[in-house]
UniProtKB/TrEMBL annotation:
PROSITE patterns: PAS (PS50112). It holds the Pfam family HATPase_c_2. GO terms for molecular function: phosphatase activity. Keywords: Hydrolase. Gene3D superfamilies: 3.30.450.40, Histidine kinase-like ATPase, C-terminal domain, PAS domain, PPM-type phosphatase domain. Residues 168-194 form the PAS domain. It comes from the Bacteria. The keyword Ubl conjugation does not apply. This is SpoIIE family protein phosphatase. SUPFAM superfamilies: GAF domain-like (SSF55781), PP2C-like (SSF81606), PYP-like sensor domain (PAS domain) (SSF55785).
Length: 874
């Protein structure tokens, strides 16, 4: 089956539980990223999630995930132990499974995303596998060429020397490496501090185009010139310049150069040039054989950001402009989004959106070439250039098959700089680049959508894994920061009549969270609207700007020292000064909150990120509402449960009393067992311990009925048998809601001589045990019929006396029926434990019995347990 040579292998086994799906996704993601295959990680994670879900959730078996890497691809296999469950076949009359069907979606995804996939059966397992082909270009490279025969390779000397020079902001040399010294003949100490133009023989005629001084100021430049050597000769070199800035913002230029015939080391593969005569000996000029290739520059076609940035830089250089920008159309062609610019405040402009058709004088001409001679005469004609100081601009559309895909603009600070001739030149270049730009845009969009699918799969899994409201709020914020936004704030709305409340705030810089929270507390929350989609919210940005202004005035001694919000600072203000959007959290047709996402100063969201955030907000809203409903239900349940138990036990003179209660099940405070101890009249007390058959609200109703009826009847002066007979009648009156009830009820009279007199009735309940001072244990009552079964009961009470040092132990059947396999603690085991408690206080006796019961089995108790211990001190 697998003929390729396996170069790497990783495997893991996952148990048939829901959390294994997330663990399998993490295993595949870590494995492929460790192998350097980030390009296919998202597809592999999505497919693995579906197949492992089929195995551990639907098939209910353990799953083994196997990752196999070979020379040109990766194969992922998911093996389960359910081979008899085959893939459902269909004939020509059967409709193919749709994406909305619950079953078969994993196989649909395999067919859509995988290069190949299949199912293999053996006698013991079923193996579903898929294969993902690696990209054509090697991972980590921007471009790659085919393997060539040796005779076709470029010619170079034995050692290729790459000169490295760096110039400061005014063009003086600050760095000169050994290869640069070898190529020029000048050692570093003779070059340092001198203008780089002293060593570069520029082939162009001064004043007619870009010179070396101007080239050093460009963000990126690549081409040929001469390098003056110390012996007077000029050596042709091929150079690449990159403008950078250091941490303090000081600009400089890094220059790499090699001998001209070794230009393949630096030359971008997309550039094709032919030499022509220069101005002097050994000099050469670069002549473009294809204007399209010259215009694109170095980025590979699928590298959209690099392609767009090189495009605007080449457009600016081509028309000798001060600035250039490129906008891409949205899918519906109603807006244009700034994606690259040079010579402008790109951080402020990037991802800004302007309408395509916005009226005369604006972008109504986006579909046709346009020349604006003076923007001052037509304010707002080009929204991207508003406030930039640009006066003249030429814009041309990017079109593919007649469809508007973008717009390219070149601007100058001088008015009337461009004519129709420049517009035609720019349009020619735009026509050559439009198809490559659109192809790269679609590639990026597909990659983003696949990554979004993987992100939403993991987000849904995390949100579904908790029903805690606070944890859900934290997950919402942590999933958006920093993946989607720089900071996030979640507002919640308790009910339609309540105002939004700031519930959670998160910033990618933890030191700014407190300041951000203080800043948001100053502004009114956004208005909760049911309309879907993201909408802008200017209040945080305005508050940040106001805070920054007051901070600046205070620094000059002109403002009120106490005028800004506590905890806010200039850094915090700048951190929230960018675009802010609000997405409603809508669940069950009601706005239950708002998800607010923000960017730092001068940054905007791209449309695809907002669409992803909208998808996340829908899932988060349902998770938050489910957590709210669960919290409300839990609070109500716990409140009702607490009402079934006495709030506190009274002090009984001369008798120690201790109660330990454990309700089985997560989140339960009260189960079917109950207890009570209450004063009846002066000098007498009633006590009870019981167990209602069954669980749930019906059992709880009988528990409440029994506890309150016992108190009422006992205080009316009825004897123990009469109390239980009337309680039995009340239970039977409940009809279908009635439940069997085992109950031990007694009355206690502390004696002046230090003992205690007890009268007890044991109606179907485990018998109470009496521990004497000599360590002997005996039953303290006889069994009688339980309640809730027969109408006529003949009950009687038994009298016993507790001497000083004696203990009376009453338990429910959760204690005696504690099991470990086939063994059960039972009455004998309980009596044996009690016999070892001689001399202990009531509290110590109850604690030791509970500890012995818990240690009897390794599993958590499956039944409620109640222990009531009473002891007469010695």
């Amino acid at each position: 089956m697998r003929s390729a040579v396996i170069t790497a292998r990783a495997a893991a086994t996952f148990e048939p539980v829901g959390r294994s799906v997330a663990a399998a996704r993490g295993f595949v993601r870590d494995t492929l990223q460790g192998w350097g295959l980030s390009d296919i990680v998202d597809d592999a994670v999505v497919l693995t999630s579906e197949l492992v879900t089929n195995a551990v959730v639907h098939a209910g078996t353990s799953a083994e995930v196997l990752c196999l890497r070979d020379g040109d691809g990766v194969r992922v296999e998911v093996v389960d132990r359910y081979p008899e469950r085959e893939i459902p076949l269909r004939d020509a009359t059967t409709a193919p499974p749709g994406p909305d069907r619950e079953g078969g979606r994993g196989l649909l995804l395999c067919a859509a995303l995988a290069t190949r996939w299949g199912v293999d059966y053996t006698a013991s397992d079923k193996r579903v596998w898929f294969r993902l082909q690696l990209p054509d270009r090697p991972v980590g490279t921007r471009s790659a060429g085919p393997a060539l025969p040796d005779e076709a390779l470029p010619v170079a000397e034995n050692r290729v020397r790459v000169g490295v020079a760096q110039t400061d902001a005014v063009g003086a040399v600050t760095v000169w490496n050994d290869d640069a010294a070898e190529l020029s003949g000048y050692p570093a100490d003779q070059v340092a501090g001198k203008p780089f133009t002293d060593f570069a023989a520029w082939p162009h005629t001064p004043g007619t185009g870009t010179g070396i001084a101007e080239a050093l100021l460009l963000s990126r430049w690549e081409g040929t010139y001469g390098l003056r050597r110390s012996d007077g000769r000029t050596v042709p070199v091929y150079a690449s310049h990159l403008r950078v800035r250091d941490a303090e913002g000081e600009p400089s230029t890094v220059c790499l150069f090699v001998r001209d015939h070794e230009r393949a080391v630096l030359q971008t593969p997309q550039r094709a040039t032919a030499p022509e005569a220069g101005n002097g000996p050994g000099e050469s000029r670069e002549r473009a054989t294809d204007p399209f290739e010259i215009f694109i520059g170095s980025p590979a076609p699928e590298d959209l950001d690099g392609l767009l940035q090189r495009t605007v830089e080449r457009a600016r250089d081509m028309l000798d402009a001060d600035a250039a920008y490129l906008l891409l159309a949205t899918d519906d062609e109603t807006e244009l989004e700034v994606r690259a610019s040079t010579g402008l405040a790109s951080a402020r402009q990037r991802f800004a959106r302007v309408p395509v058709e916005a009226g005369t004088g604006r972008y109504g001409s986006a579909r046709m070439p346009s020349v604006h001679e003076d923007l001052a005469a037509v304010p707002g004609a080009v929204p991207v250039l508003t406030g930039t100081g640009m006066r003249s601009v030429v814009t041309v559309p990017l079109k593919v098959e007649g469809r508007l895909t973008g717009s390219l603009g070149v601007a100058s600070e001088s008015p009337a700089r461009y004519t129709n001739e420049e517009a035609l030149r720019l349009q020619f270049a735009a026509d050559r680049i439009a198809l490559a730009v659109e192809s790269a845009r679609l590639t990026e969009l597909e990659r983003l959508r696949r990554g979004s699918l993987s992100f939403l799969v993991e987000a849904s899994d995390l949100l579904a894994g908790t029903l805690d409201r606070d944890q859900t709020l934290a997950l919402m914020a942590q999933m958006t920061v920093p993946t989607l936004a720089t900071w996030c704030a979640v507002y919640t709305i308790a009910d339609p009549a309540s105002d939004p409340e700031l519930a959670y705030v998160l910033h990618e810089d933890e030191d700014r969270i407190d300041g951000l929270k203080a800043l948001l507390a100053k502004v009114d929350p956004p208005e909760p609207l049911l309309a879907p989609g993201a909408r802008g919210w200017n209040a945080p940005g305005e508050a940040a700007h106001s805070t920054a202004l007051r901070t600046s005035l205070r620094s000059l001694g002109l403002g009120d020292a106490h005028s800004s919000a506590p905890g806010t600072s200039l850094a915090t203000a700048s951190a929230v000064g960018g675009e802010t959007v609000v997405l409603p959290l809508v669940a069950r047709n009601r706005v239950i909150g708002m998800l607010t996402l923000g960017k730092p100063a001068d940054e905007r969201f791209r449309q695809e990120i907002l669409e992803l955030a909208e998808d996340l907000s829908r899932r988060a809203a349902l998770a938050l509402d489910n957590a709210r409903l669960y919290s409300e239900r839990t609070a109500i349940s716990q409140s009702l449960q607490r009402s079934l138990l006495p709030p506190e036990l009274p002090e009984v003179p001369g008798v120690e009393v201790e109660v330990i209660y454990r309700a089985a099940g997560e989140g339960n405070e009260v189960g079917g067992d109950f207890y009570d101890l209450f004063p009846i009249r002066d000098g007498s007390y009633g006590f009870a311990i019981g167990d209602v058959c069954g669980t749930g609200p019906e059992a709880a109703a009988v528990t409440g009925l029994a506890r309150h009826a016992l108190r009422l009847l006992a205080r009316e002066g009825f004897t123990g048998p009469a109390v239980l007979e009337r309680l039995n009648a009340a239970i039977l009156d409940e009809g279908s809601r009635s439940r069997f009830l085992t109950l031990l009820y007694g009355e206690l009279w502390p004696q002046e001589n230090g003992g205690a007199l007890l009268k007890v009735v044991c109606a179907g309940h485990p018998l109470p045990l009496r521990l004497r001072q000599d360590g002997s244990v005996e039953a303290a009552a006889e069994p009688q019929p339980l309640l809730g079964v027969m109408d006529d009961l003949e009950l009687y009470e038994q009298t016993l006396t507790l001497d000083p040092g004696d203990v009376l132990l009453c338990v429910t059947d959760g204690v005696t029926e504690r099991r470990e396999g086939t063994r059960m603690l039972g009455d004998d085991g309980l009596a044996e434990c009690l016999a070892q408690c001689t001399g202990l206080t009531a509290g110590a006796v109850a604690a030791r019995i509970m500890r012995a019961v818990e240690r009897f089995a390794a599993d958590a108790p499956s039944d409620d347990m109640a222990i009531l211990a009473m002891r007469v001190p010695e």
